[in-house]
């Protein structure tokens, strides 16, 4: 069964409390989402493989560590996932960035795909799919399906989000047991409109100042 990790680092919890509040405006919301994403990127890359290389310091030759293994791609789910890209790129500046555009029907909560653009060698890469919210799980599953259809292996995917509902975690784990799910907070439940409680509202609208 897919693993779920809740990153309850004090800095992450503190910053999450800031973005949950109605009084936090677009500018601060955007900045703090980016900061949380950076902290999460640091943690989700903890298992990246290393290899030895020989280098020369100004004094001696020496064997030191360097990243090895798969190259990385960051895949934001549009729109709100875009808010997490800069934070990830701060830690992984050479990563490629693919995009999956989805919006959720407000009545049925069904995701609709409108855009997919991915690095050509997606099969070879470690993928970080980023989206601040995992609510019903429909968007996460549709995004991973879009990647899988284009050759990505679920076992190479980590789904990284800020706030998740237990309902979304359950369906995502059932649909993709090999995808590791990493969240900053596991909230209480969904309301009748498919919003996470206590949540933070509509992440896309809060990031981009739309309604
Ligand atoms: C939000 C959010 C997720 C999705 C989560 O996007 O960013 O992608 O809802 O809900 P789900 O788990 O029930 O599918 P939304 O569809 O509002 O689009 P946006 O990012 O363009 O605002
Ligand atoms: N999408 C959001 O942006 N917020 C929620 O609470 C649920 C889905």
UniProtKB/TrEMBL annotation:
Residues involved in uracil binding: 196, 201-203
Residues binding 5-phospho-alpha-D-ribose 1-diphosphate: 79, 104, 131-139, 202
Occurrences of domain Phosphoribosyltransferase (ranges): 6-210
Any one cellular-component term (Gene Ontology): cytoplasm
Enzyme Commission identifier(s): 2.4.2.9
BP terms from Gene Ontology: UMP salvage; uracil salvage
HAMAP family in UniProt: Upp_B (MF_01218_B)
UniProt keywords, alphabetically: Allosteric enzyme, Glycosyltransferase, GTP-binding, Magnesium, Nucleotide-binding, Transferase
Domain of life: Bacteria
Cofactor note: Binds 1 Mg(2+) ion per subunit. The magnesium is bound as Mg-PRPP.
Class in the EC hierarchy, top level: transferase
Catalytic activity: UMP + diphosphate = 5-phospho-alpha-D-ribose 1-diphosphate + uracil
Protein name: Uracil phosphoribosyltransferase
Its biological purpose: Catalyzes the conversion of uracil and 5-phospho-alpha-D-ribose 1-diphosphate (PRPP) to UMP and diphosphate.
Annotated SUPFAM superfamilies: PRTase-like
Pathway in which the depicted protein is active: Pyrimidine metabolism; UMP biosynthesis via salvage pathway; UMP from uracil: step 1/1
The protein's required cofactors: Mg(2+)
Activity regulation text: Allosterically activated by GTP.
Alphabetized GO MF terms: GTP binding; magnesium ion binding; uracil phosphoribosyltransferase activity
Similarity comment: Belongs to the UPRTase family.
Native species: Jeotgalibaca porci
